[in-house]
Structure formats: C-alpha cells, structure tokens
Amino acid sequence: MTTAQRSWAPRRPVRGRVLVLALASLALLALWAAPQSRLARLPAPTLPGRLVYTVAGNLWSWQGGPRQLTTGGHDGAPAIAPDGQQIAYVRYDDSFSDLVVAPLAGGAPQFLTNNRPSAETGSHPYVQQAVWALDPAWAPAGDRLAYVSDQGTDAPVLWIMTPAGANPHSLQTTPPNPPIERPRWSPQGTAILATSMGSGKDEVWSLNLDTSVWNEVAAPPDGAYDGAWSPDGTWVAYAGRTGAQTDLWIVPADRSAAPAQLTHLGRVRAPVFAPDGQHLAFLAEKDQRFQIFVVDLTLAQGAYQAGSPQQVTDGADGVDAAAGLAWGK
Predict the structure, then answer these.
(1) How far apart are CA 27 and CA 198, in angstroms?
(2) Do residues 104 and 87 lie in contact, with contact meaning Cβ atoms separated by under 8 Å?
(3) Cα–Cα distance measured from residue 275 to residue 253, given in angstroms and rounded to the nearest whole number
(4) Is 5 within a domain?
(5) In the chain, which ranges are continuous DSSP H helix?
(6) Number of domains, the chain
(7) Predicted local confidence at residue 272, as pLDDT
(8) Edge-first strand listing for the sheet containing 235-242
C-alpha cells in the first residue's frame, strides 16, 4: 500500500480528552517493567545552549543550573524559538488550553489563542465549545508555529499560525488530516515530523510540505512516538516500544538504513538533540520519577552510537514526561 493509499482510521471523538490522553501515556509508562540497567548518577556534561522542561506544571530552564520560568502550575510543552529569545508553550485550563509566547529572559506572556468557552463553566455547552491547542513547534525561520488542535474536528490535527497568532489554519494533507501529536519542523523547513495515531497505534511520520503527503519514518510493531530531527535534518531519534520496554532509537530520515537502538533502559521518552548535534537529551525514569539525562553521540561508519547516560536534573518532583523537552540556543 502506498503512502497516499493508506487510510487513517479516526479515533473516537477526543474533544476535551486530549489532555487526558497525554496524561494516560505517562500513566502507562509508570506501569512498565523495571529498566534493564540502572541509571548511575554521573557528572552532567557542560551543555551547549539551554534545556527547557516542565515540573509540576511550571516551566524551568537549565543552562549551567536550573531556573524557574513560570509559576502558575498550568504550563507545559515548551518550544524554544530559533533565535533563543522566545519560548512558546501551552497554558492548560478547565477543559481547554491556549498557546502562549513569552520572552525567555522574562516578561509578560502573549496569548496566541483564546479557547475559553463562552458558556457557563462545566455546562454541556461549555464542554461542547471547549478547544485544545497543544504542542507548539517553531519553523526554522521563526516565522510560523505548527501546533495541534481539535478545533472543528473530533481529533487533534495539524495547524499552522504566525508567532503573533495570525492566520491560524489546519493543513489539508494526504491522507486527510491524520490525528497527531508532537509536531516538529525539519531544520530545512520542508517537512513536519509528528506522532501519528491514524493507524490505531502511535507511529512516527513526516509530512512533506511541498506535496502535502505523509511518509512513514518509524512504525515498529509495538509503536513509536516523540520523534526529533537531528540539527542537519538527516536523522530522526524517537522512543520505540518493544514489548513492555521503551528505549531511544535512531533512523535516517529517508529510511535508507535500519533503525539502531541507542539506549537499553526500558523507560525513556522525549528525545531532543543539542543544537550542535553532539548530544541527545531525554527523560528516563529513576527512583519512580522522570529526570533529564544526556548522552554523547558519535557518528562512525554511517551509524550513531550513544555514550553513558549522564543525569542532569534530580528534583524530588521529577520532570513531567508528557510535557516533553526543548533544547535551543
């Protein structure tokens, strides 16, 4: 079956349930079997740029040490602008969410969407009007944001807008608008990587923005998600399931070689490349909490190898795994 012929089986309506699904994926991780090898605490390397992550609904930055960015307890899904000056993220509320952009150095946030229902909170019309905006991702030129929304649909699909919130529109694709999560713009700006749920399980696909056609990147039998481009756009790292275990894998973006397994830890997700491409950060469970770890990457004879995981965070609350990671300037 060709890519264009593949039919996307719609899931049950998810309006008002997208956040629940995201949290459910984290709950499933907590039920998996113990990791195959225990993570040791090693000195964290000096990291280029900065990491942004979420703890208890607040955004934090790591650049030589932790710094709290937001305090309201309702934020997640951070994305750093290409110039390193701004951050886009999601502000969650009662049965809806909005996209926000704010200066990384501090300052008032700007709301890009206004999804609060006009009906009485908790009423049936309120639930019917509720809209989710999720998973912002910057275009490499910084002139557009991709994101996920269920506005006007029964499933979360791909949308585009400007960083000022102008011209929001869903993309018409082939097959039509599969339900997705975690879109990520390619470094060349020609494709968008996402976790597709159209087949009934999580798979990593990329959308060619010139042809509007989706192409399979990683679809192992037990599922794959949280895809991330390498800085040159030639590789994709992702979390791949094998039975009850989930580890990091990497594959050429054009699928010219078989996927290679980078970790053997059993409970990992949310990989993200350093801006220099020489490190990969991810979330791994340790002592019943997710923390940030980093591995050095080595490319030899056309294949990537990962060094020993080095722990970055050690907070008692852990890092919100479903909220993902961002690494930028």
Answers:
(1) 22
(2) yes
(3) 18
(4) no
(5) 18-30, 124-129
(6) 1
(7) 98
(8) 224-229, 235-242, 245-252, 260-261
Closest CA to 14 of 124, 153, 142, 122: 153
CB hemisphere CA count around 319 (13 angstroms): 34
Domain that holds residue 145: 18-328
Encode pLDDT of 220-250 as tens digits: 999 999 999 999 999 999 999 999 999 999 9
DSSP per-residue letters across 173-189: -BSS---EEEEEE-TTS
CATH number of the domain to which 307 belongs: 2.120.10.30
With contact defined as beta carbons under 8 Å apart, do 138 and 88 qualify?
yes
Token readout for 269 is 């997700």
CA distances from 100 to 49, 111, 135, 263 (A): 22, 5, 11, 34
Q: Is residue 11 included in any domain, yes or no?
A: no
Residue 17 has pLDDT above 50, yes or no: no
Whether residue 139 has pLDDT greater than 70? yes
Q: How far apart are CA 205 and CA 222, in angstroms?
A: 15
Token pair 């993200």: residue? 272
- Does a structural domain hold residue 12? no
124 in any annotated domain: yes
Q: End-to-end distance of the chain based on CA atoms, in angstroms?
A: 41
